From TrEMBL:
Protein name: DNA-binding transcriptional MerR regulator
InterPro entries reported for this sequence: DNA-bd_dom_put_sf, MerR-type_HTH_dom, MerR_fam
SUPFAM superfamilies the UniProt entry points to: Putative DNA-binding domain
Keywords assigned by UniProt, alphabetized: DNA-binding
Residue span, HTH merR-type domain: 1-68
Pfam family, one: MerR_1
GO molecular function, one term: DNA-binding transcription factor activity
Length: 135
């Protein structure tokens, strides 16, 4: 499939696909006319790459991981090393801490919203322009 179709099917821009190729994350055959020609496997590969970027991994780490992931047909890969597993475990723990921090931040915002909403409901809006008198 051509790069435009891969972009459409994966939801990723053509520019990003070219970047993935430059980083060694994605490869394509070339047609006699020099156009990129991707196999069906490329859609799943691009979706995996996007998920790994969303998890906070950089392209170098993703390039290390991709050979260790299950192949498109679901068969396991045996390319993982103990060091890579340790690095991934540490990254997972970092993400867990980040998620916990984000949940705490969201809880604080929820408290502020609840307090502000309660204050707005109790305040009379009787001045000009909807402001309390004297403002």
């Amino acid at each position: 499939m051509r790069i435009g179709e891969l972009a459409r099917r994966s939801g990723v821009s053509e520019r990003s696909l070219r970047y993935y190729e430059a980083q060694g994350l994605l490869s394509a055959e070339r047609t006699p006319g020099g156009h990129r020609d991707y196999g069906e496997w490329a859609v799943d590969r691009v979706i995996r790459i996007q998920a790994l970027y969303a998890a906070g991994l950089n392209s170098k780490k993703i390039a290390q991981l991709l050979p260790c992931m299950r192949d498109g047909d679901g068969s396991p890969s045996d390319s993982a090393t103990p060091r890579l597993v340790d690095e991934l475990t540490a990254e997972r723990e970092r993400l867990d801490r980040l998620i916990a921090d984000l949940v705490r931040s969201r809880d604080v915002l929820d408290d502020i919203i609840d307090t502000a909403s309660t204050g707005l409901e109790a305040a009379p809006l009787t001045g000009s322009g909807g402001r309390p008198p004297g403002h």
